[in-house]
Amino acid sequence: MSTKVLIIDDAPHIRRLIARMLTMSDFESLEAANGREGLEMLKKHHPHVVTCDISMPVMDGYEFLEAVRQDPELANVPVIVITAIGQEEETTKARQMGANACLTKPFSSSHLVEVIEDLLQQ
Questions:
Q1: With a threshold of 0.85, does the pTM exceed it?
Q2: Is 53 exposed, middle or buried (0-12, 13-18, 19+ CB in 10 A)?
Q3: Within-domain flag for 12
Q4: Residue 115 included in any domain
Q5: Per the domain annotation, does 82 fall within a domain?
Q6: Which of 11, 27, 59, 68 is the most interior residue, by most CB within 10 Å?
Q7: Count: domains in the chain
Q8: Is 69 among the domain residues?
Q9: Is 86 left (phi over 0), alpha (psi -120 to 50) or beta?
């Protein structure tokens, strides 16, 4: 069974880029355009890991993290928060809210895969 990763980002080109990175490493990817859509997909498809942007319409990354961590059925799903350069405060807040890891754009596919594999071994 391949590892399933849910990619939540409002920018289609970022979702496609991350999906391509994951496909090259034999991961299966699912995509959502905002936190609310991501939360629905998380409940329906049960991915192994989630990558989530912070700044999104409808439901942002913080609201998504809060909803996931408060739901006993979802609370243990690893969430990797993705931020832009210069958003250290967002990274700190995301970690305090339960993010398992934070990546800053741009990042390499090898680094993303390494972080995912580390989280899956915990």
A1: yes
A2: buried
A3: yes
A4: no
A5: yes
A6: 68
A7: 1
A8: yes
A9: left
